[in-house]
Amino acid sequence: MEYQKLANLCEEYGIDIQKKILEEISEKDILSMNEEDWLSLFLTMGLDNMQTIHKTRTSLHKLCNVFQLIGDTDYNPFDSYKLEARNIYQSAKKNIYITPLELDTGINQLNNKEIGACILRLFYEGIREAGDLYQITMNQIDLENRRIYFKNHTLNMSEDLYHSMKIYLDTWDMDSFKLIRPYENSFVKVNQYRSTTDFFINFSNTASRFVSKAGFKKIHLYGSGFINYLYKKCGSIDKMDELFYANDKVRGLMMELCDEIETYGREYGLFLEGKYIRYRYKSYYESFKLKNK
To answer: How many other C-beta atoms lie within 10 A of the C-beta of residue 271?
Structure first.
């Protein structure tokens, strides 16, 4: 179906579908697609987040309702096919939760494990962006007590992170890496490229290369680390289920659990309203459960 027609229908009936998805389905005869065709389409779009899959599926369901309404088809495939978001997600095999073992495996693929392991583990244990890591000073790091102090929270190092940081700091005495501090008392060191004196760009690019070489994305490391952190705090999958699947209609229970997950979030460095955290990281938890069956 022609792209502009689809776009006009979405606008007329208030259906929110990403442009890239509309472009994808405009090239197909979606009114004659069977269940396998639809599933293949979801895989082609590369959706690896439960929330995004659910939102896309809901929007496509509404679009097919419009096709019924205007007489283009007499059925809605999303009423009869088993195209639930969870089934799509499992079929995609894009589980975004990174287990500690997978983290180790990725680190072992790096050529420079001394620096790479430290960077990846810091993302996994609570550093969200390269800029946050770049700004850490030596004054914030307490190796003796295995903590990193931030303005509003404290990051407790795991045993693995502690040893990785010690090794990373030891490399500062090795001339072969040719690294320099970008500013006084800086924790990170960067390559001094001739092409630019912007040390943050140099460090950000370096960190991204390490993450990519290990086969990950920073946001997936961070999200997986948070789920791993929650699991340690909760102690069981049943407790995690309570946090993520509270019945929103039971207001007292929902608010109590949202407060609890918000508290955990603050401990991890997430200063967001609890319900938002619950929905934002639900897809990571879905993947966590699939990998821990």
So the answer is: 11
Tokens for 82?
Answer: 């088993």
pTM beyond 0.90, yes or no = no
| Contact indicator for 281, 240 with CB cutoff of 8 Å | no
CA 125 – CA 158 distance, rounded (Å): 8
Report the C-alpha gap between 199 and 267 in whole angstroms.
30
Q: Residues 87-142: pLDDT tens digits? A: 776 665 555 789 999 999 999 999 888 889 999 999 999 998 899 999 999 999 99
Exposure on the CB side of residue 8, measured as CA atoms within 13 A: 5
- Using CA atoms, how far apart are residues 10 and 17, in angstroms rounded to an integer? 7
C-alpha dist (Å) from residue 89 to 24, 49, 161, 240: 19, 8, 31, 20
pLDDT in tens, 73-94: 888 888 877 777 677 766 655 5
Quick check: 53 and 88 in contact, CB under 8 A?
Answer: yes
Q: Does the pLDDT at position 5 exceed 90?
A: no
What are the Cα distances from residue 49, in Å, to 76, 276, 284?
24, 15, 8
CB proximity list for 231: less than 8 A, separation 6 or greater:
237, 240, 288
Q: Is the pLDDT of residue 293 over 70?
A: no
CA 57 to chain centre: 20
Assign 270 a pLDDT band (cuts: 50, 70, 90): confident
